[in-house]
Specification:
This protein has 560 residues and is α/β, with parallel strands linked by helices. The chain has helices spanning 21-30, 32-52, 79-86, 89-99, 105-109, 132-178, 185-207, 230-255, 262-269, 290-293, 298-311, 333-343, 354-357, 359-363, 401-407, 413-416, 432-439, 456-468, 504-512, 520-523, and strands at residues 57-64, 112-115, 122-129, 214-217, 273-279, 319-324, 348-352, 382-383, 390-394, 421-426, 444-450, 472-481. The strands form 2 sheets. It has an 8-stranded mixed beta sheet, with helices on both faces. Strands 2-3-1-4 form a 4-stranded antiparallel beta sheet. A hairpin with a 6-residue loop joins strand 2 and strand 3 (122-129). The longest helix is centred in the N-terminal third of the chain and has 47 residues, at 132-178. It is rod-shaped.
């Protein structure tokens, strides 16, 4: 037996790659239920917080400020300074007394917000309270307290100015009295003029009217609370839930090691995906074979693709191993592949542990294959009653499988003398070592992976193990299990598979050998490279093997 040595898988996905935009949206699509759940929880949390948050009402009083006295020389007032005066201690204490506020002046001042439009003489005094009436009363109280404070400050200023002028007038009158009669009149006249000017200023201050400003708009009770705002709370809940859903989805997807698509399988396996399809098998019980019962289905065509890849690879590729990693339940992939080879006119043998080949007993009408110690493997072949070109070889229990192979010299040449191709079932096994033991006999291997069931770690480990025993890996096949397809393949021409009267064996036999008109596939000339050993007839032109473009020459390296 010859084979092509393999240095190792060309690639591996052991390291985490950067998530692209497409992969990001794929993650969200896969985890859509999780994202929607967290968004809903965010909305519910926002609603609960909205109900638990105390309502706050705000009312605003507008004050028109102006110079506090008609005698003032300035016609403008600094709104920045006046805004600070509104929340000063003096104004706050006056408003606190009016409102009968129980808290400290600092707590009361924190409820007040003062703003002023640009280039204006108006102050907007806004007060926040837990009731509409309290908000209006608080804003009006601060507005009046502020105006009263301005009045007091203006009155004090006028009183101080009047006192200064009166002091100056008294001083000048004293100087005027002290003048001697002999002094000239100009000095006396100068003092009299100064006294007259001060008397005029005094009259102005004494008759001036104080105008601290006025309340241009009294505060009214607000119709609705200013906070909390339902729109902001709900929008925050949606954003928080969406962000939490995205983060949790990415984290869960990173920790999820399952193979989800062909691109991920190629990345972890390091070899191309030869075919992918939805399979009718359930994994828990035997069912119809897609290669026979639905030979026009995508699944059956996927197995034909595998057989084409195997037969087109090289002359010596006559033993192919189907293996999988992390499989749960029964897989009909090896039996489907063997049946496809047989239906293409090749003498086929499917070999594997006893429990792996047991489904062929019912599905293909094979007598129960029992391994016999001391008997050659070729003499233990159990032929199929429904597929004449298919035989089953049981290698016994997995624990004693190595001994059975060693008794035959670890070679299958005697079996190849009667078969064109041998399919080794390394999928339906219990011990990982069984795949490696069968891989030592195989020329080539195809890895079977199930979407959302097989794992990247298991696939990578299997690829490394196959490389260690120098088994050429052709690629992988990605299958998706979908329940409820056993009795409805949904294709034309498969109505006979759904008849209830005949048994499954009779249905298979009717499909394989129903009439001479349907035996075209079975009677086609067998390619020369797969003729049984001992066939000496020269191939005709129509029987010459067809090599697809770019397949390369046959393998020459021997497999140890």
């Amino acid at each position: 037996m010859t084979g092509k040595a393999l240095a190792g898988p060309p690639g591996s996905s052991s390291g985490q790659s950067v998530v692209t935009i497409g992969q990001f949206f794929s993650i969200l699509r896969r985890r859509l239920l999780l994202v929607l759940t967290l968004v809903l929880l965010g909305i519910l949390a926002a609603g609960a917080l909205l109900l638990a948050t105390p309502k706050t009402y705000e009312a605003t009083a507008v004050v028109d400020i102006s110079p506090t006295s008609s005698s003032s020389s300035s016609s403008t007032v600094s709104t920045i300074t006046e805004s600070r005066i509104v929340t000063s201690t003096s104004v706050t204490l006056a408003a606190r007394e009016t409102l009968a506020f129980a808290g400290t002046p600092t707590e009361l001042a924190e409820r007040v917000t003062v703003t002023s439009p640009l280039a204006s003489q108006f102050l907007n005094i806004t007060y926040a309270a837990d009731s509409p009436q309290g908000a209006a009363d608080g804003a009006n109280a601060f507005a009046h307290a502020y105006l009263d404070y301005r009045t007091q400050i203006a009155q004090k200023d006028i009183t101080l100015r009047i006192g200064r002028i009166q002091s100056q007038v008294a001083d000048l009158q004293k100087r005027l009295t002290d003048l001697k009669t002999s002094q000239n009149d100009p000095q006396r006249g100068l003092l009299q003029n100064q006294i007259q000017q001060l008397q005029n200023q005094l009259n102005n201050y004494q008759t001036s009217v104080i105008s601290p400003g006025q309340v241009a708009g009294a505060a009214l009770k607000p119709a609705s609370p200013s906070s909390p705002r339902p729109v902001l709370y709900l929008a925050g809940g949606v954003l928080f839930g969406l962000l939490a859903g995205i983060i949790l989805s990415v984290l869960r997807d990173r920790r999820d090691d399952r193979v989800r698509n062909a691109a991920e399988l190629e990345q972890s396996l390091g070899y191309p995906v030869l075919a992918e399809s939805v399979t009718a098998e359930s994994g828990s019980r035997t069912g119809p074979l897609a290669a026979i019962d639905a030979n026009r289905s995508p699944e059956a065509d996927a197995y034909r693709t595998i057989t084409t890849t195997v037969t087109a690879d090289a002359v010596d590729s006559r033993i192919v191993l189907l293996c999988g990693a992390g499989l749960e339940g029964l897989s009909l992939a090896p039996l489907n592949l063997a049946a496809t080879f047989a239906m293409q006119g090749l003498q086929t043998v499917i070999a594997g542990p006893r429990h792996a080949v047991e489904p062929a007993i019912d599905l293909l009408g094979v007598p129960s294959p029992l391994p016999t110690p001391g008997l050659r493997l070729v003499d233990q072949l159990a032929p199929s009653a429904t597929l004449p070109r298919l035989s089953v070889l049981s290698l016994g229990d997995e624990v004693s499988l190595g001994a059975a192979l060693r008794a035959n010299g670890d070679r299958l040449d005697d079996v190849l003398a009667k078969a064109d191709v041998i399919v080794l079932d390394g999928v339906n096994i219990e011990l990982p070592s069984t795949s490696l033991r069968l891989a030592q006999l195989a020329d080539e291997a195809v890895v079977v992976a199930y979407r959302n069931r097989s794992t990247h770690a298991g696939t990578e480990r299997l690829a490394r193990q196959l490389a260690q025993v120098n088994t050429t890996v052709l690629g992988g096949i990605l299958l998706t299990r979908r329940s409820g397809l056993h009795s409805r393949f949904g294709l034309r021409g498969s109505a006979g598979a759904r008849r209830a009267a005949p048994s499954h064996r009779e249905s298979v036999a009717a499909r394989v050998d129903p009439s001479p008109s349907e035996q075209v596939t079975a009677t086609l000339p067998v390619p020369a490279l797969y003729r049984p050993t001992g066939h000496t007839a020269a191939p005709s032109d129509s029987e010459a093997p067809i090599s697809p473009a770019g397949t390369g020459s046959s393998r020459s390296a021997s497999k140890s």
